[in-house]
Design goal:
The protein contains 5 helices and no strands. By secondary structure, the chain is mostly helical.
Amino acid sequence: MWLLLLSLLTLPVLSWLLQPGFWASGDGLHHLYRVDELARYMQQGVLFPRWFGEFSFGYGAPVFIFYNPLSYYLALPLTPFGARAGTKAAMAAAPQN
């Protein structure tokens, strides 16, 4: 009973995930690039990349040393549908301040 009620109450909140396009935010494109880069490293067999070689104008950046990668890993199954779908899921799973 409670599970049904909880799922019905969360549907309106999560409906924005199904909307087309990408919303404007200060760091939205950074999340998009991180999900795309993580998917590329996972395809190469690197399970926990600490250094993203394509970031910072090709010099690389230690992204997951400073940022929590869990939300990006949750977005990986959605990357075949496009990086935007994966990024929306990653930003929905990330804690909001």
